[in-house]
Amino acid sequence: MRFMLLFSRQGKLRLQKWYTATAERDKKKMVRELMQVVLARKPKMCSFLEWRDLKIVYKRYASLYFCCAVEEQDNELITLEVIHRFVELLDKYFGSVCELDIIFNFEKAYFILDEFLMGGEIQDTSKKSVLKAIEQADLLQEVLIYCYIDQVDL
Amino acid sequence: MPAVSKGDGMRGLAVFISDIRNCKSKEAEIKRINKELANIRSKFKGDKALDGYSKKKYVCKLLFIFLLGHDIDFGHMEAVNLLSSNKYTEKQIGYLFISVLVNSNSELIRLINNAIKNDLSSRNPTFMCLALHCIANVGSREMAEAFAGEIPRILVAGDTMDSVKQSAALCLLRLYKTSPDLVLMGEWTSRVVHLLNDQHMGVVTAAISLITCLSQKNPDEFKTCVSLAVSRLSRIVSSASTDLQDYTYYFVPAPWLSCKLLRLLQCYPPPEDGAVKGRLVECLETILNKAQEPPKSKKVQHSNAKNAILFEAISLIIHYDSEPNLLVRACNQLGQFLQHRETNLRYLALESMCTLASSEFSHEAVKTHIETVINALKTERDVSVRQRAADLLYAMCDRSNAKQIVAEMLSYLETADYSIREEMVLKVAILAEKYAVDYSWYVDTILNLIRIAGDYVSEEVWYRVIQIVINRDDVQGYAAKTVFEALQAPACHENMVKVGGYILGEFGNLIAGDPRSSPLVQFNLLHSKFHLCSVPTRALLLSAYIKFINLFPETKSTIQEVLRSDSQIRNSDVELQQRAVEYLKLSSIASTDVLATVLEEMPPFPERESSILAKLKKKKGPGAVSVNELEEGKREGGELNGGGERGGDSSAIASTPSPSADLLGLRAGPPVTAAAPSAGSLLVDVFSEAGVNDDGFLRFVCKNNGVLFENQLLQIGIKSEYRQNLGRMYLFYGNKTSVQFVTFTTTVTCPGELQSHILHIHTWNSLEPLIEGGAQVQQVINIECLTDFSDAPLLNIKFRYGGALQNLTLKLPVTINKFFQPTEMASHDFFQRWKQLSLPQQEAQKIFKANHAMDTEVLKAKLLGLGMALLENVDPNPENFVCAGVIQTKAQQVGSLLRLEPNAQAQMYRLTVRSSKDTVSKRLCELLAEQF
């Protein structure tokens, strides 16, 4: 995987993770361009598209778009499920995750993603293993932020 | 703002985030951020030492600000301090900051590396994982230098925790991708491969990504992974849907691992061991069988995971391309998906079938789905799916269904998205030619193409239709009639005017018997378009007019009047004016006989004669060394046009200019270099344009600049300069289409011994793997000549155009003579040195027939271009040419003398080269014998 983006329907970037060295300027340009392309697509359209030299796999959960850029030989369907598993992990951790959780606890979202994917490859697909790693950190820090606004529909 | 937490939940951060969210305008946001930055700065600079919590909070705020898109230029040191904190969360934030805001300050990197080193050796698995994550996230060369040696050890050590192993495997993969030279697997190879057998599924999942990447680069060293992967796959595939507990995903056992195993196997040919192969085939059959079973869950996650494995298995089956039974089953399965209600599956099925269509075993099976695919092209709502359908139609086309497919593509073209029109036009043109049995169909198709999508029809396409009409007597009358009808349309595309002008100029007489298309009617029709056309088209029309004068004497006075009008004879465009003047003069002074000779019908284009192939095959012998390579380049060039067996044909336009091609001798002098702009071009451009490929490499022996390669998609130009034993070559890659080229990569290799003869350093000026439509990028190659050499370096170009991979290999025109320093000398000296080089092996001689007109000036220009000094008044026979020069290599200097004796009567040359080194004499002689 080359990068993963989370952005809202309004075009606000909520999370970005780059797995290859990319200049800040290029990142901004790519994010802008890609958001435009994805947001313009209609609901029933397919979840894959060719963009530059990459394959884009995206899926919308409530107000958030999860968007992965993968390489030519990567499997689109399994990438869709990478997205879904990540959403499940967020959901499990935050308890019915919503966009605000990700805004206010962005660092947690990054930690969860890091436990799940490393260098763009899956580290572990087991929900238990990933969450165990995250919860260990929380033994020291009991952050519990509750919010039920704009809940993600799973 | 949501309820905020207790304890060290960083309340200040939540407040700040919520402030930002409440900002009504961008200005307000910036103001709030600047206030916060000032605050943090003062805290960091303050005298009071900050506690860990505050430091963490401020670092986290900075990170938030950065992620909002603002620049952050401080805080790195505080983040680094956090790394050595004992509190996990502080350490974690420190690492996160470092991973996101990488800084190249070397002092800082030293500190970071120190902290990482400490954590790696801490034996605390969570700390080790954090450190590994940081290395993987940054992935810089400095990190690789510091840790590439340590990580493999952690990965294979017996006492490493599973979670650490997983991180180590992926961390190593990241470093291998950025600095492969620093990651040396050597002794670890076998233990890494055996991670495929690990008890822990998570470890296998992480390790297999690393193993796949390493296998792609070093297939031989890792080939033992094949049997391990097969047995692991077989265990997963045969397990029940709950066996793997947490690694079962929506009733599918280990889908990620299965996909990765199947992907790893695609790095290798089918297993040779019969038992392993049998087991694998069994797995693939099971996967195909499972696709037919009723789903265990209605959730889309279940079907996605299941089908992900299925598609990966199909990819492997296609990769092997050796099991007809499996290929046909795969095709049937995909056929079912073509009508699935999930758009995603339809998309993937179309894509996957495209590759199946090229296998001889499944081509027929794919063809049975033609109606469904045509329907998809017509009805899919998503353009990306329609694009896949068009690709598949192209891939499944053969002689049996070409007419149907071309017709469907043409009708789709009328409404096609602008983004894919150009590609569609090329595809239609290629299919029409490739599968034309009857040429009137071909002519109709191309004219329709121009009518429907004239703007997207490139020159090569209409050149080609003209070439085919000229070569086929049986279609000429039909073509004349058809273009005449097409031109009746009140608004017709300029490309249509070009084709019409050319064809009526040649064959208008074939339809002149019909009073509805009498000569004058034809002329008036053409001339009615004249004023709307661009200069090159007008130039072409003027040539058509003069041809009319020859074909139909009755039109002479009308046409002369047109030529005589001020708008022609005083046209501000030099080319047009010159044509008008010359054609007018020609028509008034030349006798009918002369006119008939000069304006004779175009001779047939030698079919494919001109391609490098035909030309080189005639010349066996040392000069033909490159036949194979060029043949290969040619074939690839053909594929580049998307053509198959006859792909090379589009360059057949590049025929050897026949004497009458140079209409009216307007183009006197040496053949125009291909780099000359083609604007204002004559009819003869049909020849010279694609002639670009014609001599490729050999055309550059006597010159340094020009076009090395050109086809419908790409033009490669070269500029080069040499001094002493050094050279610099500028390569210009021009995208001729309006679609971007992606993953554009070039590699220069020196085959065989050449590596030790030429040293090249190769740099990109703009390292964008992307060339926008119509754009040109430049690459610079530095060359150093170490000793003399005979082979040429190879330039390989790969890129994707509209989804299809283009691959092309060309010889780079670096030849030994580029390193010549001219040496002036008097007659006496010349002959003295000539005698000194009298050993038989020092001389190379060749007698050969002239390929070009024996024009003294042209010969001189070529010899000067060779790089030697052309010596006047040396040879007693003034007809002969002698040259002297010294080749500068790093190892030595090689003095060379040359004598070229033309024999105008016999149209032959004798070429003699003497050098202090035998290989040089031989090579120079080979190179030069192709030039005259």
TrEMBL record, chain A:
Keyword terms: Coated pit, Cytoplasmic vesicle, Golgi apparatus, Membrane, Protein transport, Transport
Subcellular compartments: Cytoplasmic vesicle membrane; Golgi apparatus; Membrane, Clathrin-coated pit
Keyword field contains Iron-sulfur: no
Family membership: Belongs to the adaptor complexes small subunit family.
Protein known as: AP complex subunit sigma
A Pfam family of this chain: Clat_adaptor_s
InterPro entries: AP1_sigma, AP_complex_ssu, AP_mu_sigma_su, Clathrin_sm-chain_CS, Longin-like_dom_sf
Membrane topology: Peripheral membrane protein
Entry's Gene Ontology molecular function annotations: clathrin adaptor activity
Domain AP complex mu/sigma subunit: 1-140
Organism: Cyprinus carpio
Assembly and interaction partners: Adaptor protein complex 1 (AP-1) is a heterotetramer composed of two large adaptins (gamma-type subunit AP1G1 and beta-type subunit AP1B1), a medium adaptin (mu-type subunit AP1M1 or AP1M2) and a small adaptin (sigma-type subunit AP1S1 or AP1S2 or AP1S3).
GO CC annotation terms, alphabetical: AP-1 adaptor complex; clathrin-coated pit
Superkingdom, natural source: Eukaryota
GO-annotated biological processes: intracellular protein transport
TrEMBL record, chain B:
Keywords associated with the record: Cell membrane, Coated pit, Endocytosis, Membrane, Protein transport, Transport
GO molecular function, one term: clathrin adaptor activity
Gene Ontology terms: biological process: clathrin-dependent endocytosis; intracellular protein transport
Major subcellular location class: membrane
Region: Disordered, residue numbers: 624-660
Subcellular location: Cell membrane; Membrane, Coated pit
Compositional bias of kind Low complexity: 650-660
GO cellular component, one term: AP-2 adaptor complex
The keyword Cell membrane is annotated on this UniProt entry: yes
Top-rank taxon, per record: Eukaryota
SMART domains: Alpha_adaptinC2
Binding site for a 1,2-diacyl-sn-glycero-3-phospho-(1D-myo-inositol-3,4,5-trisphosphate): 11-12, 43, 53, 57-61
SUPFAM superfamilies: ARM repeat (SSF48371), Clathrin adaptor appendage domain (SSF49348), Subdomain of clathrin and coatomer appendage domain (SSF55711)
InterPro entries: Adaptor_Complx_Large_Subunit, AP2_complex_asu, ARM-like, ARM-type_fold, Clathrin/coatomer_adapt-like_N, Clathrin_a-adaptin_app_sub_C, Clathrin_a/b/g-adaptin_app_Ig, Clathrin_app_Ig-like_sf
Ranges annotated as spanning the membrane: none
Subunit structure: Adaptor protein complex 2 (AP-2) is a heterotetramer composed of two large adaptins (alpha-type subunit AP2A1 or AP2A2 and beta-type subunit AP2B1), a medium adaptin (mu-type subunit AP2M1) and a small adaptin (sigma-type subunit AP2S1).
Function: Component of the adaptor protein complex 2 (AP-2). Adaptor protein complexes function in protein transport via transport vesicles in different membrane traffic pathways. Adaptor protein complexes are vesicle coat components and appear to be involved in cargo selection and vesicle formation. AP-2 is involved in clathrin-dependent endocytosis in which cargo proteins are incorporated into vesicles surrounded by clathrin (clathrin-coated vesicles, CCVs) which are destined for fusion with the early endosome.
Protein name: AP-2 complex subunit alpha
Organism: Cyprinus carpio (Common carp)
